[in-house]
Every structure is written in structure tokens, then in C-alpha cells.
Amino acid sequence: MRVGLVCAHAGPSRPAEGPPVGTHEHVARVAGELAVRGHDVRVYERRDDPALPASAEIDGYRVERVPVGPARPAGTAELVGYVSEFGRWLADRWVGEWTPEVVHGHYWVGGLAAAHAVRETDIPVVQTFHSLGIEQRRHLGREYDGPGERIPLERALTRAVDMAVAQCSDEVDELTRMGLRRASVAMVPTGVDIERFHPDGEAAPRDQRARILSVGGLSAGHGQDDLIRAMRLVGDAELVIAGGPPPDQLATHAEARRLRELAERAGVGDQVTLVGAVPHDQLATWYRSADVVACTPHYASAGRVSLEAMACGIPVVGYAMGGIADAVVDEVTGRLVPPGDIRTLGMTLRRLLADNAGRFAYGHAAVDRVRCSYTWERTAGALERLYERVVGRRAPAEVPVEVPDTVPVDTDTPVEGTTAGPVGV
Q1: Where is the region Disordered (predicted)?
Q2: Alpha-carbon dihedral of residues 303, 304, 305, 308, nearest 10 degrees?
């Protein structure tokens, strides 16, 4: 099968940047697994550096770098203006010797470009959002800083695709509230590299105190505030926060300073350590150094950190939401607590750190769960079956998506509750 994967952002294609993380890792691993299964796969990403080659062969699939937009890194808000041009480039490319049988858009900007490219064809479109603006705005509140046009364009995109892929149960529910029929939503969780993340191997240095590890960016919504406040109830343990800028830039980083000040005010300044950015290929050593990994973001669609920690045999204490709630089986592979309940979070961490046998059992069960349900091979297999289904239908999208020159901010979208009904066709 000929498969086109569209991600409108530029990829981390330079070797010095290390392995891809997040959406680009997802696309790269799916592409590689599909290629192993014998499919002809091409990945389309934006070319932001003229010095990069127009295409490259990687792990059995081809990467095509689309020359649209500025010749430099650009944020999502800036890229929205280039969606139509990106789509036209794809459409022109696909009338030549290679035409995809199915197109899979990634993130909302990539999905818009993919839908624009096939709107005059019968090529089916599958879409993975990776995160939804309406969900982020609900959970993050004032901390949400996405482009104003994102939410209405995501709603338009749901009417232009044959099938939407959700990465967790919460996202399935949200997509149906946005107007998609339940039969048009398939849940396919992200995968974990079990050759990189496993219990055996080196661990980062540590002292004698119990260690709680938090992994995530240093920005609003990642939940480090909650963990720092919870440490007052945990007792003699250290909280290590990995993520954010490089270590040599932590001293001048505003969020890092704020978190340190919060720790001092809470009386746990000597228990909280910020280590800065950790290369993704070195994260396993940090997971293995921890007694517990805490996952407390205010929004998490895929639950990647919880899955990586579980693959390393480390129990997870996390908020019962999004991908974390799907990944962590409460009282089997870790513990789930109500989002924002700092007292329950602190007491749960305290009890688990004191329960050596419980952590051992949770860790073993966590490894089994990841290896049975969250490998990249399993993810690619589920997508392969999904592609075969939509290609078999060969049905055009019900309504072609149009990207207007200006899109009004969706100020009337309900933020609380579930009253967002179907969008008229």
C-alpha cells in the first residue's frame, strides 16, 4: 500500500539534534514499522533549511521536505497561513508517478494540508490530532496559548476526514462531541521503544533518599507546581524535575526560578532539584534511577512519559486523565489520583515510597503491560488495518475543508461541560 504521512512542521532531521521526540517520533516510528511490513511510505514535512536535501531515505521510507513557508523555524500560528500552499504542493506532487492510496495527517496543521491536497480526489484521509485545542483550553484555562483559529479549524477538519485516530479514551469522547460519528473514530495509542526503555541498564546517580521523578517541559500546565506543594506531605524524599532548557540556562529561565521560589516558600527547597533538558536517548537512565515517576500535567493526550517509565519497570503515580488514565492501571501498575488533588497526590506518593513490595509488583506489571499493549509494532499494525478499511471504502470526504484567509476566534465554544454538538454539514 502507498501511504503518505503529512506533518507540516519541519522535522528534527539533522543528526546533531538527536532522535525525534513527540509528534515527529510518532510519525517516524509508524513510517518505519509500515515500511518493514512492506508498504511504500513517504513522510512529508516542511523544509525550513535550504541546505537540507529535498528528500532522504530513512529506515526504509522516504522523507520529502516541502519547500513552503519561511526558510527558518516557524511556530504553528505562522504556519497556518501556508496550509493552502502546502496542500497545493502535495496535490501537484501526487499527480506524477507516485500517488498515495491513503493519506494520514498529523497534528491539526498537517491534517489541514493533507485534506486540502486530496479535496478533488477520492484518496481517503486519516487524521491524528495528537492534541485538541478545545481540550487544552478546558484543562489549561488561562494557561492555554494556542492560536485563536485552531479550534474552529480543527472542527472543520473533522468534517473533511474519513477517520480520526484518537490516542486515548478522553480524546474519543471529545471528537464525538465535536461532531464525528463514533464509527468514524478509532483509538490507536502511541507506542514505546521497548529496546530503549527497559528495566535493565544504567541508572542516573542518586543519593540515599527516595527519588520521585517528573519529566516534562518547564512551562505552564506541566504540573510541577502541584508536585512541589505535595512534597510537604511526602516526607524525606527528593523530587527531580527533568525538562526545560539546557542545564546551563536554568539560572536565567523564568519558570525554573518560579518553581525554585515556590519550593522555598513551601519549605521543601532542599528536596527539589531541576536538572534541565535531558536528551531523549538518555531518559531511560533517569527513569531507572527513580522509585516512582509522577505524571501530573494538566493535559496529556498520549501519556508518553507514563508509558516510558512503565517500560523501565517504574511505577507511576499520575492524574486520572487522558493518556495517563488509559496507560496506568490503578493498583496494578501504579496509582491514579484525581487531577489537582494535591493532598491525595502527596499521601499516595508517601505510601507508595514506603511500600517496597508494592513498588516491585507494580513495576513488573508495568513492564508486562507496555510490552503487551504499547509497542510500536502494535501501533503500526492497528493503523495498517485501519488504512485497509478506509481504502476499501474509497469514499470521498463529506465536506472538503477550506482554509479561509481569516478565521474568527471561536469565543463561543463551550469550555466547560459537554454541550458542543454536531457541526452541520
Answers
A1: 404-425
A2: 130
